[in-house]
Design a protein that fits this description.
By secondary structure, this protein is α+β, with helices and mostly antiparallel strands. It folds into two domains: 3-65, Winged helix-like DNA-binding domain superfamily/Winged helix DNA-binding domain (Arc Repressor Mutant, subunit A); 74-244, Beta-Lactamase (2-Layer Sandwich). It has helices spanning 2-16, 22-29, 33-45, 61-72, 76-91, 133-140, 144-153, 167-180, 222-226, 229-244; strands at residues 49-51, 57-59, 94-101, 104-111, 183-186, 193-201, 207-216. The chain has a five-stranded antiparallel β-sheet with strand order 4-3-7-6-5, with helices on both faces. A hairpin with a 5-residue loop joins strand 6 and strand 7. Helix 7 (144-153) runs antiparallel to helix 8. It is elongated and about 70 Å long. The two termini are 27 Å apart.
Length: 252
């Protein structure tokens, strides 16, 4: 039975390359045409493959509908939370998860620092778009014309001397973030708070969320916090892999 399932599933990547006839499927699987036909008929009955008028097979609409439904029901917070807790246990600092929704970047999860000095960020609260590291990652992933349009209409409050001063500087920062694949806020929102962030990507490579580690200067310096960047990026990559289905979740 497992061999039959394996063979049936092996047909799907083949058809993802383009329509194929019965002989091509049989050759790829290394089986007789009668065996390939039984597998194709079963997949066809479930809507996972479709037989064209030229007798070639292609991927079926049901497969795309299932993929779309699965993507719509994915909860990045649910997938990410255990990873965020583990990161917090490793470094001790505040860990955030944020998403871009309706022209705002919102925190959707937070794991508190184990140190006495706490941050005032809250789940559901918008972040400062022009300075927050998570916002830079999410906005940097927008198409260029959208980035430019957004940069022109934003306000640029000078929270600190390190805040982003205007559209040109903001676009330069977003381009830098796109190139390096991570972001920082080193005293741009609050002079005493530093932050490093990494993107979480879906199966298509787009940024679906961003996670960060933040800490006040009285706990660690900016340079000390930056040494955590590899750990932050590994955590974001692990979440990305699980969210996109590239890697399985860890079993208990």
């Amino acid at each position: 039975m497992s061999q039959t399932v394996d063979r049936a599933l092996s047909i799907l990547p083949l058809l993802a390359e383009g329509p194929a006839d019965l002989g091509q499927v049989a050759d790829r699987l290394g089986v007789h045409k009668s065996t390939a036909l039984r597998l194709l008929r079963t997949l066809h009955e479930h809507g996972l493959v479709y037989r064209q008028s030229d007798q070639r097979y292609r991927l079926g609409a049901r497969l795309f509908a299932l993929a779309q439904e699965a993507m719509e029901n994915l909860d990045v917070r649910e997938i990410a939370h255990a990873h965020l807790v583990r990161l917090n246990e490793q470094c001790g600092h505040t860990v955030h998860l944020a998403v871009h929704e309706e022209n705002e970047v919102l925190y959707i999860d937070k794991v508190e620092s184990r140190y006495p000095v706490r941050m005032y960020s809250r789940i559901g609260k918008p972040v400062a778009l022009t300075v927050a590291a998570v916002a830079k990652l999410l906005l940097a992933d927008l198409p260029e014309h959208e980035r430019r349009a957004l940069a022109e209409k934003l306000d640029y409050p000078l929270y600190t001397p390190r805040s982003t001063p205007g559209p040109a500087a903001f676009l330069r920062e977003l381009e830098k973030v796109r190139e390096q694949g991570w972001a920082t806020d080193l005293g741009g929102h609050e002079e005493s708070i530093n932050c490093v962030a990494a993107p979480i990507r879906g199966a298509d490579g787009r940024v679906v969320a961003a996670m960060s580690v933040s800490a006040p200067n009285v706990v660690v310096t900016a340079d000390e916090l930056l040494t955590l960047l590899p750990l932050v990026r590994r955590t974001a990559d692990a979440i990305s892999g699980e969210y996109s289905g590239r890697t399985p979740a860890e079993l208990p």
